[in-house]
Design brief:
The protein has 134 residues and is an alpha+beta fold. Helices cover 31% and strands 27% of the residues. The protein has a five-stranded antiparallel beta sheet, covered by helices on one side.
Length: 134
């Protein structure tokens, strides 16, 4: 049950949705190309979801479900409701200690992804997400 659009990127659109089986809100990412995308695009989207789902790190968003709806690949993931780094900064640099803490946390998460064979090709402040606890 889709609530609203959270964001759009090159590969997909992310919605806030209610996962009916889990009974909670999730982020639902659907392939932008959908059933009109090439087989290669659809396979790349699925591989992305499966690779991230295999990661276990407290600072990497968790994948809950991977599937296909009428030829459109999708996956559901942990909903991060604390905004993103671009919003938090609002054009103003972070305080030194906060920036150092965040850089260390982000480095550990990226290292975990690299250990899992994943390279984040679009790492930017808008893609650094926070939960509702910061």
């Amino acid at each position: 049950e889709v609530e609203s659009v959270l964001g759009e990127g090159g590969m997909g659109i992310v919605f806030k949705a209610k996962h009916l089986k889990l009974g909670r809100f999730v982020a639902l990412k659907m392939s932008r190309a959908g059933c009109y995308g090439s087989e290669h695009d659809q396979e790349r989207f699925r591989r992305e979801a499966e690779s991230v789902a295999a990661l276990r790190h407290p600072n990497v968003v968790q994948i809950y479900d991977v599937g296909d709806l009428e030829g459109r690949p999708f996956y559901t993931m942990e909903l991060m409701e604390g905004g993103n780094l671009a919003q938090k900064q609002a054009g103003v640099p972070l305080a030194s200690k906060e920036a150092a803490r965040l850089a260390a946390t982000l480095s550990e998460a990226v290292h975990a992804a690299h250990q899992g064979g994943i390279i984040h090709r679009d790492l930017k402040p808008a893609n650094v997400l926070f939960d509702d606890h910061g």
